[in-house]
Amino acid sequence: MTELGSIYNHNGQPSTATIQSRQIAEKFANGIAEFNWKVDYFKFCELLELEPGEYADEQYQYFQQLAESLTRFNAESLAKMIDAGIKNKLLSSLRS
């Protein structure tokens, strides 16, 4: 069973995101931010087993965009998106 969180959003309303989704969102966003802060291009390539070059350059750029984009959402917003994605996936699998 999924539990709704007890955190309140910017309107003072109780959160509609599940605790599990909020935990996933926080871990993901924090992990990406920490990784982005600590690594350079060559460490990124090493971790993902990429040979430095055009493809690796492109992937590193996408990663940096991801890290930057995640800072624009709080964990609550990310958690709501996760919940919506899971719900949509469940609904489409039930229709199949």
Short summary:
With 96 residues, this protein is an all-alpha fold. It is built from 4 helices and no strands. The protein is 68% helix and 0% strand.
Written overview of the protein:
The chain has helices at 19-38, 41-47, 54-70, 75-95. By secondary structure, it is mainly α. The chain has a domain at 19-73. The protein has four helices and no strands.
Largest sheet: none
Helix-residue proportion: 55-70%
Structural class: mainly alpha
β-strand amount: under 5%
- Which sequence of SSEs, written as H and E, runs from N to C? HHHH
Gap between N and C termini: 23 Å
Q: Uncertain spans, ≥5 residues at pLDDT below 50?
A: 1-6
Shape: elongated
Q: Give the count of helical stretches.
A: 4
Radius of gyration: 17 Å
Count of individual beta strands = 0
What is the mean predicted local confidence, pLDDT? 85
Which terms would index this structure?
96 residues; mainly alpha; 4 helices; 68% helix; 0% strand; elongated
